[in-house]
Sequence to fold (336 residues):
Amino acid sequence: MGARIKTLILLIAMFGFVPTALAAQSESIDELYKKALKEEGVVNCYCSLAQINAQKIFPEFEKRFPGIRINHVDATSDKLAVRAITEARGGRVIADVLEFGLENISQVHEQGLLLEKSIPEAAAYPDNLKGSYWTANNLIFFIGAWNTNIVKKEETPKSFEDFVDPRWKGRLIAEPRDYEVLIGLAHKYKSLEKATATLKKIAANNPEFHKGHSELAEFLVAGQAAACFTCYSHHYPPRIKKGAPLGYFLSEGVAGIIATAILKNAPHPNTAMLFVRWAESEEGQRVYAKGGRTPAHPKVEPVEPVRPKTIYAVGVDDLKNYKKYEKIWKEVFKLR
Fold:
């Protein structure tokens, strides 16, 4: 007899019924789908997912669950968060599901607007990729990258620490707003002081800062810099396929989290739960991977080699102290 069945029998023996919250968690996705069909046949998704990805991912959900349509409200994470909060304050919750940066998900949660409920699929995720009201959906990784025509094979960096070597003086570029790298190193060392010390050594090599991660990648392609220590891993496979002289390490990386959450007073609660459970399941995560995103599910591999072996995720507690990290980062690199 399965553990879940034993638990249900015990609950029935104790209470004479299965508590509603636990019963809901024991539902299969297909059982939940039947409930969702009794709602309006739509799920309002405030999602920062780019249209190029959404056009590949969302139709697969609609195909999997006929009769349900995704109303995709597309904008940046910060704008979607403000919209959800403003609507709720006005007395009308329109969004069912949020899917955007964890920093802004947390902002909506601070207003008491999110459902505090863990989904069954979250059990497959490590603790640093889930919380009481959110689950990581897809990830963006900060890694090191370089121009293979400029960087000799014996110079190839294998970790962030390698950039402290004086041989990188005047040869590095970075994004001025990537405070996540400081947070990731603090997780790695379990010490903010050690992380700051490493960055000070990198700063001694006089890195040049440019806004925009795509621009950083293009600088490397053009040979205008030797290496970058705050690059996005997903920018490199497509450029390498086109023949660009680039390399990047995947031994470790800092993860920015795109998460899903459900509004507490969602107009379509069952449909919202259906979407989130599907999006976080292995099935849904495989669709996200094929749609060009880097899945957060530990058992689902991305289509391209972009996920580092060791991941330092930037969590909610880190984001609450973001201003502190920003201040340290700017002081270390003498940025305004």
Observations:
- The longest strand covers residues 135-147.
